[in-house]
Amino acid sequence: xxxxxxxxxxxxxxxxxxxxxxxxxxxxxxxxxxxxxxxxxxxxxxxxxxxxxxxxxxxxxxxxxxxxxxxxxxxxxxxxxxxxxxxxxxxxxxxxxxxxxxxxxxxxxxxxxxxxxxxxxxxxxxxxxxxxxxxxxxxxxxxxxxxxxxxxxxxxxxxxxxxxxxxxxxxxxxxxxxxxxxxxxxxxxxxxxxxxxxxxxxxxxxxxxxxxxxxxxxxxxxxxxxxxxxxxxxxxxxxxxxxxxxxxxxxxxxxxxxxxxx
Length: 262
Fold this sequence. Notes:
By secondary structure, the protein is α+β, with helices and mostly antiparallel strands.
């Protein structure tokens, strides 16, 4: 039976709104008054390991993240770095997706408060502020193009491509080029804001001036945020366009597959 001192310390850490329910030998479900934005409550388990008590989410937090993000998106890159920083700050162990905090002797309330704070900080990564979302767009684009290219059977993709003959100084770079998939080149552009939209338009016009033949695809972070005049000019020279990353996740593999030589 869990000590009443532990229960009391837990209640004091969260203004009394804490309940424990036995769920096995030396294992308790800690009912905390905290939930994700969809209403799903945090999972906090108190269990004994050897002679120590630990708090665990038993993998629930990362599982919940996977509802909002593909596993690749929070297991790598900026988001992964931010998660690791949070875990290090709160001294929480990541056991293959399970978050575990060993409770220092007698500090049960502090440990619970720390554990809840950490889950909240990690969960916030799925609701990045606007500026951070913009910063991760190119990273997400690169991963998505590489992933969907491989699914379509395209192994040779160059990110940040510059034409070796017409543009040796790299003044008109293409965000991604699919190599050896068709008789024409396939150029893919990441469009996260008005400036990138205008730049991609200029680059496509320049490639046309060189007499290059190519297919082109534009992937927008959010097409609704692009200036209508800029978008109209871009659309005049662009082939296929995908209005958001979510749309690209659904359709990009099929679009790429159509370019593969049969």
